[in-house]
Amino acid sequence: MKHVHYTDIEAEIPDVDGLKDVTIRWLITKKDGAKNFTMRLFEVQPGGYTPSHQHDWEHEVFIVKGSGELRDKDSAYPFKVGDVVYVHPMEWHQFVNTGDDILQFICVIPYQS
Amino acid sequence: MKHVHYTDIEAEIPDVDGLKDVTIRWLITKKDGAKNFTMRLFEVQPGGYTPSHQHDWEHEVFIVKGSGELRDKDSAYPFKVGDVVYVHPMEWHQFVNTGDDILQFICVIPYQS
Predict the structure, then answer these.
(1) Residue A5 forms beta bridges with which residues?
(2) Has residue A20 been placed in a domain?
(3) Could you give the CA distance from residue A43 to residue B4 in angstroms, rounded to a whole number?
(4) Of A40, A37, A38, residue with least CA distance to A50
(5) Domain range enclosing B84
(6) Cα dihedral across residues A89, A94, A99, A101: positive or negative
(7) Which residue of A has its CA nearest to B91?
(8) Complex ipTM, two decimals?
(9) Helix H or strand E encompassing A53
(10) Domains contained in chain A, number
(11) Contact B50/B19 with Cβ under 8 angstroms?
C-alpha cells in the first residue's frame, strides 16, 4: 500500500493556460500502480481560478476545504465544503475561489485506455 | 453537471459481513453517467471498522475527517486527516476508527470493464 500525507507530495503549477494561483498535487498515479484513474488535489488561493475549459474526459470532484463558484459558459453555481461535483466529458467548467480561505478539492480523472 | 452536498445522498449500510458502525454514500455512479469509476464516502463511528478483506480491484482513498488505523494482515498503520492511501488489487486492508470523532474518507473504485 501507498500511504502518505498530501503535503508529502509536491504542489506543482499545472501546465495549462488560463489559470490563476492554482497548484496540483498528483496524489495517486500510474507510478503507484494505479492503472485506471488518478487522484489529484487542487489548491486555489483566494481570487484564483482554474481554466474555463472543456475536454473529453470526466471529473469526479469532492470539495475538501473552502468555497467558491463552479462556472460553465453561462452560469455560476456556489459550492462549499462537502459538495460533490460530476463534470461530464465535454462540459465547460471552471472552479473559482470566491472565498477568503484556500480552496482545496479532490479531482479524479480516468487514464485513457 | 451533477452538483450536490454529500448529505443529500443517502447513507446506506454496506451489504458485506465483518463491519461495525459503517455507512457508505455513493456520491457519483453510473446513474450520473460515470462509466469508468465511482466515488463513495465512508463514515465510520468511533470504535467501528470496515471489513478486513481483499478483492481484485484497487482503492484510491483520501481521509476527510477523523483518524484511525489502516490494518493489513500483520500490521496497523495510523492515519489522520489529509492522508492518502492507495490499496493495490488483492491487498488485505481494513479501516478502523480508533479516534473519538467520526471518521470520513473518500474511496474511489473502478467499474469493471
Answers:
(1) B83
(2) yes
(3) 20
(4) A40
(5) 6-110
(6) positive
(7) A1
(8) 0.97
(9) none
(10) 1
(11) yes
**In B26-44, which positions are buried (b, 16+ CB within 10 angstroms) versus exposed (e)?**
bbbbeebebebbbbbbbbb
Cell of A15: 501546465
Q: Strand pairing partners for B83?
A: A5
Find residues 28-67 of chain A whose CB sits inside 8 Å of chain B.
28, 32-37, 39, 41, 58, 60, 62, 64
Q: What is the pLDDT along chain A (113 residues), one digit of tens a residue?
A: 999 999 999 999 999 999 999 999 999 999 999 999 999 999 999 999 999 999 999 999 999 999 999 999 999 999 999 999 999 999 999 999 999 999 999 999 999 75
Distance CA B63, CA A52 (A): 29
Is A92 contained in some domain?
yes
Q: What is the pLDDT of residues B74-105, one digit of tens each?
A: 999 999 999 999 999 999 999 999 999 999 99
Which sign does the torsion angle of CA A113, B4, B5, B11 carry? negative
Nearest Cβ partner for A6 among B2, B82, B113: B82
Q: What is the CATH number of the domain that holds B12?
A: 2.60.120.10
Q: Is B97 inside a domain boundary?
A: yes
* Minimum Cα–Cα distance from A31: chain B residue: B86
**pLDDT confidence bin for B65, thresholds 50/70/90:** very high
Amino acid, single-letter form, for residue B33:
G
Region B17-36: mean pLDDT is: 98
pTM of the model: 0.97
| Residue at B1 is within a domain | no
